[in-house]
Amino acid sequence: MIVVFRTRNLMPSAFRKIKRYLILSPHLSQAIACAKRLIKNKEFIVTGAYLPNEDPSLFPHLSKYYHDIIVIDSLDELICDYECIIPTGASSIKFIFDSKDHHQCGTIRIDKNILNSSDKLAILSLAETLGINVPTTWPQFEDIPSGEIAIFYKPKYEGLPGDRTWVKSRDEIPTFIQNGNFLFQEKIDSPGVYGYGFIADKGNILTSFMHHEIISYPVDGGSAAVIRPYTNKSLHEYSSRLIKAMSYTGYGLVEFKWCPRREDFVLMEINAKLWASIELAFSLNVDFSQLILSTQTSPTCVNGLIWPDRLFRCGPRSIWLARKHLLEYHYVFEAVSISRIANKIKRSLLNVGK
Which of 254, 277, 9, 305 minimizes the C-alpha distance to 134? Predict the structure, then answer.
């Protein structure tokens, strides 16, 4: 274990009752969302833990969210030092299950079999048997028909490197994407993504939260830049059906797109991790904090959230499309200067508006 930094003014545990929490991959948005809620409470000491393949020097701003930051090789030597260890992203979920079949996080159990969701083709096949709409999918490049068909491609398995984007036809797919590690699908031509975040036990949903990801970064598939709460019976029904069939135990996010041709939602994937926009679920559904963090929080009244650093990276067109939300939604600042990013957005709006 390597200590990156440690706050010196922590009161020794002998003088007050405290709980020690370890948050894996502390630089991720979902990790910061957890840490922000814990560090406000003096009952907690919050440690961020980088995995062996993560570089802490890239994220010097994290000291305001954690009491200390460490780099770890394994959990074996630390397991008894913390009341709760929270895996956040896909890498930390896999890291947790390198040495065990289940993990207790707060009051919820996470089972190793949630990693089955990383096989995107298998999940789509299962969903289709359950009567859930899925996009037309070609497992191999050779399977794609010729012609002017817009194609979306992404890695076949969660955690594999590679872009998520679309091209106008089969002929435009780069050669290095044709290596067998990518999945090819029809492009669902509609803006945004709809998410169903949940915590489940043996396929039974304990709590859930739906959102509409209006703008993402990267634009063709990534983390939310602009997001709002959303409710829909079909989203709940389709997600519940899939989670039940998987006997899912843990937390995750099911993602859909609206298909104008089918006039219905189409499943994109299920992600076995805390999602990058969980800040909105924490704000509006206190069950998530209670179950994952074992802490009581009060709901916050928000119409939506904007991550300005992501929105700025999306480019002027996305900023222009989001203009009506800029005064209505709350802002989530993680690593940037408020005035600097606000000025950049203002300049982009002025340039697009000319």
Answer: 254
